Amino acid sequence: MNPATQQFGTNNETPLDDSAPGAPGAFVGQPGGPTRVESDSLGSMEIPADAYWGIHTARALENFPITRRPISVYGDLIRALVRVKQASARANRELGVLDPAKADLIDTVCEEIMAGALHDQFAVGVIQGGAGTSTNMNTNEVIANRGLELLGHRFGEYQYLHPIDDVNRSQSTNDVYPTAIKLAMVFGVNRLLEEHRLLTAAFAAKGIEFAGVLKIGRTQLQDAVPMTLGQEFNGFAHTLTEDYDRLAEVVPWLNEINMGATAIGTGITADPRYAAAVCRHLTEVTGIAMETAPDLIEATSDAGIFMTLSGTLKRAAVKLSKICNDLRLLSSGPQAGLGEINLPPRQAGSSIMPGKVNPVIPEVVNQVAFSVIGADATVTAAAEAGQLQLNAFEPVIAHSILQSLAWMTNACRTLRVNCIDGITANTTRLAAQVESSVGVVTALTPYIGYAASASLAHTALTTNASIAELVVSAGLMSAEQVAHVLSPQRLSGLVPVTSVMPIIR
Where in this protein does the record put region Disordered (predicted)? Predict the structure, then answer.
């Protein structure tokens, strides 16, 4: 069997057909195909002869046919798991508790998987009982069997390289799994931050492009006062910048790990020097400054950082969704709606109405936000449900956050490439709206007073006359004065008035 490859640096989910008889999470072996026999404390099972995974993975495939999604849909998680195993092998070699040849072999296999090999062998479902034990064992078995293959042995000949005694030496699922999912989340957050930055820059570029385009602002969906379209898009850019900063602040907290805790935080079965050594090696192999938690018992049971990250993701998703709502409103129509901006036409919008084009890109981002909001509720419930020295529900926490990170990253990218970069302003319509809007009367209140301004606004609404014409005809201001006060620069606040403004009585 040739190792499958997966492009490094991606975290896209592979769509699976839930009805497929061989869907991952429900499959143990090809009927009638060659097998090998493996045993554990519960008995023996036949394993597909060419599978790099073993009996523990096979039991998980039988027990958890839930999502029909294997953990391999999260490439970041696979890379994080093998980095943890690699760092552990190096630490064990250094401390003299693992044969150097075995440690080096584990190291070699981990590098292969980091480069994309064998990702299809990480077959257990993303949702599983056992607090991630099946994921940890799947990882141990793949590394062990690939190591056996390199040694020239058959799969399952674990007397030469054992999944637990060697690959899992000095470890427990309860420190490996939370450390790996934190590391995977760091990978995902960093990728999201880059797409978030590019999206912010795209909005800022539109802010510059539309700097001189005057429009009417709106509050409560009613006409308010003038502003520029550039100011509106700059506002989008600035609110995204705030979310970028909040997401970036979470990363250092994810770098605190509990490796060396083993089962519950007491470090049983691990050399007392192991925690420091594995942390140092994990820092070296990832290039990320990791830190051992000061209280390993607390760190093994606490899920607070996952709630923090999930909540921050939800905040970013909600605000991005609000921006997409605005884009859909601003582009609505185009004839019978606001029609202030034009979104790039991406696809036909109707099977019955010719020529209809819908705002499909903002709509898909809205739906990503809805999913992130729901995922945050799941993370909150799972974090609360932890009991005593361990949270058994970290698999659903990991799935929820890793999916949110992947979807948000893809949403930011498609919004930028397929929408924001191609937005144009409907300048003719915007100019007409400003000229006919009574909202500009607000700029005149310091000169003619509120009462006179309100009376003129009422007259303008009932007669469709322009505010400027009414002010001049009423003798309240000269045409030159009105033109000066109602200039685009002053209306939008780009040129603030700093001197005393006389009120005309």
Answer: 1-41
